[in-house]
Design a protein that fits this description.
The protein is α/β, with parallel strands linked by helices and 343 residues long. The chain has a single domain (3-33, 58-87, 94-335), classed as Spore Coat Polysaccharide Biosynthesis Protein SpsA, Chain A, CATH 3.90.550. 37% of the residues lie in helices and 22% in strands. It has helices at 3-25, 27-31, 64-70, 72-76, 109-117, 142-155, 169-184, 202-211, 263-270, 279-290, 310-315, 324-335; strands at 51-54, 59-62, 81-83, 97-103, 123-125, 128-138, 158-164, 188-195, 198-200, 219-224, 250-259, 294-296, 300-301, 318-320. The strands form 3 sheets. Strands 3, 4, 5, 6, 7, 8, 10, 11 and 12 form a 9-stranded mixed beta sheet that branches. Helix 5 runs parallel beside helix 12, helix 7 (169-184) crosses helix 9 and helix 7 packs across helix 10 (279-290).
Length: 343
């Protein structure tokens, strides 16, 4: 076994041991959590295979054997939630549900706290029920896992899976989240999905959905059109895995909107398509395989604010790359001139 795979294997074994300790210590609190059964109790079997896809400009080839060789865990790992929060979407009542979903690392407790104190709070706004949800995977750090469990007990807004948190496993998190939606949250009207360092302006987001014709027909975001493949650095992929020089169109993963009615088609595509090791590109392939479309809007500020001013944050749907401290400051700047109004 190559050294890199040996290191990965050792990390997985260590994480498994520590995770077992975490499960034992939190067993009593979790077993007493009463949740309703999933809406879809029998999921279709996986049937992953090679794929040839075309968007009319480029034809893309995904050879399953290459993905199995380099990223077997992404292709085979079953989606086993340790904390499922299966009843979360039943809290919306009669209002259409806008799910505010955040990809978060177990170590990012301060970021999650800042989000819960600002925009990631359950509330009614513009005729929608806004419900936050944090997507987390495991870690060898038992202290961090205990903090996640405590947050879950306090806020009931965390889904925790049993695989190890990592950059490439964000694609696994994407696949498992689609399964979670089909099992437990098929009533969601829209899903906003972003990173835990994004600022979201819920008023602007809801206003956009209200004004946009046929909003439920498209995925909305800052769309990257046939981006160039990187061969070096954090986002690199090998030519053996992906020999083409361009990707399909995809919504930049910092923040985008997924309409609930499109989730079943994406989930069905996730059952057979090879899992690409970059989560936003992977979603682009799922959209292509499902025959769906994107719509672009620059107010999804995935590259950060062009100017760090109140006006920019007021007109933006989301802004990527804020510290927890700046998140609090921006929230106060936007809402403090309106006494009596709920932020």
């Amino acid at each position: 076994m190559p050294p890199r795979q040996q290191q990965w294997w050792c990390l997985c074994v260590l994480a498994g041991i520590l995770f077992s300790i975490f499960l034992y210590s939190s067993h009593l609190s979790l077993q007493n959590r009463q949740v309703p059964p999933p809406l879809w109790t029998t999921l279709p079997p996986s049937n992953r295979r090679s794929a040839t896809l075309s968007d009319g400009t480029i034809t893309f080839y995904l050879k399953l054997s290459s993905y199995e060789a380099q990223f077997p865990n992404l292709q085979r790992h079953p989606c086993r939630p340790v904390i499922a929060e299966a009843g979360l979407c039943q809290r919306a009542g009669a209002s259409p549900l806008l799910l505010l979903v955040v990809k978060s690392h177990p170590a990012s407790s301060s970021r999650r706290a800042a989000l819960r104190h600002t925009w990631a709070r359950p509330r009614e706004m513009g005729g929608y029920w806004l419900q936050p949800l944090f997507l987390v995977a495991t870690t060898p750090n038992v202290r961090q896992l205990h903090l996640v469990q405590r947050e879950s007990s306090s806020f009931r807004d965390v889904v925790l899976w049993d695989f190890v948190e990592s950059h490439h496993n964000l694609s696994l998190k994407e696949r498992c989240f689609l399964q979670w939606l089909c099992q437990h949250c098929r009533q969601a009207a829209f899903i906003f999905k972003g990173d835990d360092d994004v600022f979201v302006n819920p008023k602007a987001l809801v206003g956009y959905l209200q004004r946009r014709p046929n909003a439920s027909h498209f995925l909305h975001g800052n769309i990257q059109n046939h981006s160039k493949v990187m061969r070096y650095g954090k986002y690199s992929v090998s030519r053996a895995l992906y020999p083409l020089d361009r990707y399909p169109c995809f919504a930049s993963g910092g923040g985008f909107i997924l309409p609930g009615p499109l989730v079943p088609a994406l989930y069905q595509a996730s059952l057979w398509l090879p899992v690409f090791p970059l989560d936003d590109v992977y979603l682009g392939f799922l959209v292509l395989a499902a025959g769906l479309s994107f719509t672009h809007d620059e107010r999804f500020r995935v590259w950060g604010a062009p100017k760090d001013t109140r006006e920019v944050y007021q007109e933006s749907f989301m802004v990527h790359g804020l510290t927890p401290e700046r998140m609090e400051e921006v929230w106060t700047e936007l809402w403090s001139p309106h006494p009596g109004k709920e932020a």
